[in-house]
Amino acid sequence: MEEWHTIENYFSEEEINEVFATVDTTITDKSWYLKDNLNDFQKKLIQGSPWTSNNIVGVEQWCHNEKSVPGMHYDKDEDLFVRTKEIRFPIASAILYLRVENLLGGKLFVNANTTPISPKTGQVIYLAPGVLHGVLKHIKGVRRSININIWDYNINIDNSIKTVYR
After folding, report:
1. Comparing C-alpha atoms, which of 58, 63, 14 is closest to residue 36?
2. pLDDT tens digits along 32-84
3. Residue 16, SS3?
4. C-alpha dist (Å) from residue 39 to 43, 77, 154
5. What is the DSSP string of 87-137?
6. How confident is the model at residue 166 (pLDDT cuts 50, 70, 90)?
7. 163 or 95: which carries more pLDDT confidence?
8. Which long-range CB contacts under 8 A does 14-18 form with residues at least 24 apart?
9. Hey, how many other C-beta atoms are within 10 angstroms of the C-beta on 137?
10. Residue 20, by phi and psi: left (phi above 0), alpha (psi -120 to 50) or beta?
11. pLDDT tens digits for 105-160?
């Protein structure tokens, strides 16, 4: 099975504007959404994922912008890892590029052996569980993304992540 999957123009300009109206992309802190409180764009991201489950409990969400450039890492249950050193991966991870303009650098690397992916507005990149990925260098331009990890259990057992209710 492939490690990543991309869908070009998965979100229209109108849908992206709706996301911008509901999400402050300058805030990079994580939020937790239970399945019954998902936004329309979160539901669409889940529906498009090649990796799925009938047992989705919720999604962890955060944003990246030009100031938050993640190096190479694995998406995992960070709190569990800190507490027990156990590594558990989400069902899938999704990156939605909300705005990409005049970008120099800022490419997504998936594992060490692939050609870096140049992000585009409206593009979604899905990552399989346990895939090493990251952005190594952002030089200039606009690069805004919203990211979700899709989980089949509640990762927010100690309420360390802000839970969003709608």
Report:
1. 58
2. 999 999 999 999 999 999 998 899 999 999 998 877 777 899 999 998 999 89
3. helix
4. 6, 22, 18
5. ----SEEEEEEEEEEEEEE-PEEETTTSPPBPP-TT-EEEE-TT--EEE--
6. low
7. 95
8. 15/41, 15/44, 16/98, 16/99, 16/121, 16/122
9. 11
10. alpha
11. 999 999 866 789 999 999 999 999 999 999 878 889 999 999 999 999 999 877 77
> Taking a C-beta distance cutoff of 8 angstroms, is the pair 137, 69 a contact?
yes
Q: pTM here?
A: 0.94
The set of residues, in sequence order, having a beta carbon less than 8 Å from that of 42 and lying 6+ positions away, is 33, 59, 61, 148
- For residues 63 and 96, give the distance between their C-alpha atoms in angstroms, rounded to a whole number: 9
Do residues 153 and 58 touch, judged by C-beta distance below 8 A? Answer: no
In the chain, the amino acid numbered 151 is W
Q: What is the mean pLDDT of residues 88-92?
A: 98
| Total count of residues recorded for the chain | 166
Kind of pairing, strands 124-127 and 138-151?
unpaired
Residue 112: count other Cβ atoms within 10 Å of its Cβ.
7
